[in-house]
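Continuing the series of single-chain predictions for the mutant panel. This is the parent chain; the variants come on the following pages.
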Amino acid sequence: MKKIVQIFVVALLVVSCGKNDKGQLVGVDGKSWNPEKPYGMVLVEGGAFIMGKADYDIAGLKNAPTKTVTVPSFYMDETEITNAEYRQFVFYVRDSVVRQSLAEMASTAGGGQAGQGGGNSGSIQDFAFKNAQTQNAGGNNQQNQTPYEQYSTLYDPTDKQLNWDIDIIWKPSEYPDQDYVMVMDEFFLPSDQSYNGERMKDVTKFKYSYKEMDIEAAARAKGDRTNFIEEHVVEVYPDTTVWIKDFSYSYNEPMHNDYFQHAAFSNYPVVGVNWNQAKAFSDWRTQYLSSYKKNKGRKNESSRVQSFRLPSEAEWEYAARGGLEAATYPWGGPYTKDDRACFLANFKPLRGDYAADEALYTVEADAYDPNGFGLYNMSGNVAEWVNTSYNANSYEYMSSMSPNVNNKNNKRKVIRGGSWKDVSYYLQVSTRDFEYADTARSYIGFRNVQNYLGNSLNLNRR
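Parent structure:
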């Protein structure tokens, strides 16, 4: 055995000599990589700043004492996530759930050529799993399997692919057969719960499932890491009833009916989304880009992408300040008007005169001027979820390097920036507020960030 090992080592040395490294330690090159700025995001170069209240704490909360902290570079969405962008997530999940049910029904119904993909036989079989024939063939098709499919313990033979080559038929009069009718009826409310002649979808049926690992807990513990992996199942449709529930004795039905769905509001920030839904969207956005890169399969390019996520509270405040030290607002301050007496953000000015800033509710996500980093509406319009749990004393004990205090048992999550219905105090970049993770509001939205790989020195060489 010792002789075999020696021969193996010699063989390795011979192989290494053929790489022109002259026996020197030259390192192993990874795949070619260049920074890729995600669409709709800007690069925020990291650095140190004084986090917390630079002005007098009018509310006397004493929850944001000044502290010097440092954050690394990251990408951030130029605007809040819009209705159009969130609809892309909702429609993807909706269509995935419907196609899954159609494919499962096709598998049990029989009577057709399953898994052809893209065909149109006029039955539910058009929506069968794309690899259904391979699964049905079983061992007879083993000679066509790859070594991964034959030998890997990670291969799941029941992992069937949805057929996206044919459009879902939504119009009842065009349903192809009885099985299709049975599936589709499950996703709509009964006729006695619909009105105005509309056939309304049961939005509670459309859920997104993803897994998340508590890396901090896993890193400090020993044992099976499966104990730290948790699956989340989240309803994806925003709660449009917030336009009614948030305000008593106020007529907001038009916003309830049209704000999320109508094209007139496509470029407005999505609201009615709780913290859990914002996290689910972030995961889907990551998987969506990763799936595209895998399918494209460009040579020497990794399909792994940096995760989209909610910003930490420190990242959000650093970005909101736009490079200004000790500023009250993203534009500096201390006033909320410019030299032409125009308001600089969408909020509640003049003791409740909502229209004084020419906006009764929300405005377009790219309204008003951006701050020094090119970010729009970091104050006003809608408040924004961040990936931090609210604790009035957290500034006292959080790290000064990439600080973040996020306790999964603490359901109070920080929101920042103030909104269209808030007074100017909540627009201050240092003001902290919170809402419960499972609560949606008509004045809370979010935006994503993504890690920048490398350090700030890379920025000057680009």
